[in-house]
From TrEMBL:
Belongs to the carotenoid/retinoid oxidoreductase family. This is Amine oxidase domain-containing protein. It comes from the Eukaryota. SUPFAM superfamilies: FAD/NAD(P)-binding domain. The lineage of its organism: Eukaryota, Viridiplantae, Streptophyta, Embryophyta, Tracheophyta.
Length: 584
């Protein structure tokens, strides 16, 4: 049978098995699973990383089941239509760039319906004094725009981006590799232990070669970026407050951290780390919303033979107390799903504190998981509006959308001092009086998510502490007051915005935890500080996706290389699983 014919045959079978990724599944979990079947692998959670892991495993001919708690797939990469009639929201994540190119190719996601909508310009910062800053992939535009604030900065900006892109070439290797964890496995043979050490040595050798290619000066600059506050890096390169503040938002997004927090400089790499269509640093909207990413991956998984079950909440990982090996999972409805391999796409805290029996885990490991930083200061407000916001700093009225509407609109980010003040307020338990808002309007490019002439607006807002020093996020008045504070701030830049709001959906840190299983509301499954990356993620000694429970692996954002819609944790985890299976 030809590869094309096989794909058609598998696609037909997939359609027959497929549960809609956008509709609630009415059948119980037990009725969707073959009775008594023993699976080669089970994946906890149908987020994008879990689906990636399932697809890659199934492509090796193994039987794989994905168990998703909600009635809809995607985890935080999800589109939902029932919140404001006629509008389709990307409820959590809202832009794509970090998804690994190898995953796009291997799983043929474009064939499965993924369509990216690149943005140009990609950034717009309005100022209350009537000026504005546009940035994007067009070098001439960048030079012209930055020159309005500083001719010196306009000359420095291309060099800044060039340096970050050099660092990203080094990061690509690290992101796409399992960390070289070395543990003393006493049950392993001497041959296996020697082979393991050779494999780890190969990693460090490859990393050294990449570092040598960077050159000594660049490596010193790279380590400076890793450990420094974003403010130090940006103050070194630039003098314009508006440019520095615009770039600084990349360093603090999604984190309970400020521009002066050591290590925040590393996240500046996200400015250029990803790509769209082979072009570095270009972020894209996804047609149909971010749920289309998960939908495409799920179609690839189904085509490979994966069984996907929604409304299937895992209540416990089953572990044989005698052997210490995983035996499968138990669902909330009492169903037992048996498998010698379980991959968890849940957060480390959810996995090891809530699902794995405490008596089978080493005390120091469990302590490290419990005391890790899961703090969040992020609130997502999805807004339906009856017209586009018109910014007073732009002379032309663009009812259909102008360059200022295409990319990320930075509100309340005219200086790093503003960002730092907002952070310090939240650190004291108070939601920021003038929040830092990243506004995007995907419906300018994607006409499938809103009625004609109306629009979907994403507001990614910082800073909002998980626990308020006064009041509670459960109080509807507190929630309404904060939403109106955000709308009023936008009104200062785009008069009339508040009156254009048709409806909205608001997710505070406790909402993100409750609805999406994000411990502490942290969108990255845990902080992305230097003490929580690479060999330290999720805990010292356990960075290679393996866990103290034999047969249980982490495959979500709580594992290396961390958060963002990139799929790397899922893909890397499978490489480790296959390595262990081969060893057996």
């Amino acid at each position: 049978m030809s590869p094309a014919a096989r794909r058609l045959l598998l696609a037909g079978a997939a359609r027959r098995r497929c549960l809609s990724t956008d509709a609630e599944a009415s059948a119980s979990a037990s009725s969707q699973l073959p009775r008594g079947k023993r699976w080669d692998a089970v994946v906890i959670g149908g987020g994008h990383n879990g689906l990636v892991a399932a697809a890659y495993l199934a492509r090796t001919g193994r039987s794989v089941a994905v168990l998703e708690r909600r009635g809809i797939l995607g985890g935080a990469a999800v589109s939902e239509s029932d919140l404001v009639p006629g509008f389709r929201f990307s409820r959590c994540s809202y832009l794509l760039s970090l998804l690994r190119p190898a995953i796009l190719r291997d799983l043929e996601l474009e064939r499965h319906g993924l369509k990216l909508l690149p943005r140009s310009p990609s950034s717009f910062t309005p100022c209350l004094d009537g000026r504005y800053l546009l940035l994007g992939p067009d070098a001439d535009l960048n030079h012209s725009e930055i020159s309005k604030f500083s001719k010196k900065d306009a000359l420095a900006y291309p060099r800044y981006e060039e340096q970050l892109e050099k660092f990203c070439k080094l990061m690509d290797f690290v992101i796409d590799s399992a960390p070289p964890e070395i543990r003393q496995e006493f049950h392993a043979s001497m041959v296996d232990r020697m082979k393991d050490r050779v494999d780890k040595s190969a990693f460090w050798g490859s990393l050294l070669r990449h570092a040598i290619q960077q050159g000594q000066k660049n490596m010193v600059e790279f380590f400076d970026l890793l450990v420094s506050p974003a403010s130090k890096i940006l103050n070194y390169w630039f003098e314009s407050e508006v440019l520095k503040a615009t770039l600084a938002t990349d360093a603090v997004i999604g984190a309970m951290a400020g521009v002066n927090t050591p290590g925040s400089g590393y996240v500046l790499l996200h400015h250029v780390m990803g790509e769209t269509g082979g072009q570095r640093g270009v972020w894209a909207y996804v047609q149909g919303g971010m749920g289309s990413v998960s939908s495409a991956i799920s179609k690839a998984a189904l085509e490979a033979g994966v069984q996907i079950v929604t409304n299937a909440e895992v209540s416990q990982v089953m572990v044989n107390e005698t052997t210490g090996k995983v035996e499968g999972v138990a669902l909330a409805d009492g169903t037992e799903v048996h498998s010698p391999i379980v991959l968890s796409n849940a957060t480390p805290y959810k996995t090891f504190v809530d699902l794995v029996p405490a008596n089978v885990l080493p005390e120091d490991f469990l302590c490290a998981i419990k005391t890790a930083d899961y703090s969040s200061a992020t609130t997502k407000i999805n807004v339906a509006v009856d017209r586009l916001p018109q910014f007073h700093c732009c002379k032309d009225i663009n009812p259909e959308g102008g360059p200022e509407h295409m990319g990320t609109i930075h509100i309340g980010s005219e200086s790093m001092e503003e960002i730092d003040l907002a952070y310090r307020e939240a650190a004291g338990g108070v939601s920021s009086k003038r929040p830092v808002i990243e506004m995007t309007i995907p419906s300018v490019l994607d006409k499938t998510i809103s009625p004609p002439g109306q629009h979907v607006i994403n507001l990614f807002v910082q800073y909002t502490p998980y626990k308020l020093s006064e009041g509670s996020w459960q109080d509807s008045n507190v929630r309404k007051s904060f939403a109106e504070r955000c709308f009023s701030l936008i009104d200062e830049y785009a008069p009339g915005f508040r009156s254009s709001v048709v409806g909205y959906d608001m997710l505070t840190p406790p909402d993100l935890e409750r609805e999406f299983g994000l411990t502490g509301g942290n969108i990255f499954h845990g902080a992305m500080g230097l003490d929580s990356l690479f060999l330290m993620r999720p805990a010292k000694g356990w960075s290679d996706y393996r866990t103290p429970v034999k047969g249980l692996y982490l495959c979500g954002s709580g594992a290396h290389p961390g958060g963002g819609v990139m799929g790397a944790p899922g893909r890397n985890a499978v490489s480790v699983v296959l390595e262990d299976l081969k060893a057996k």
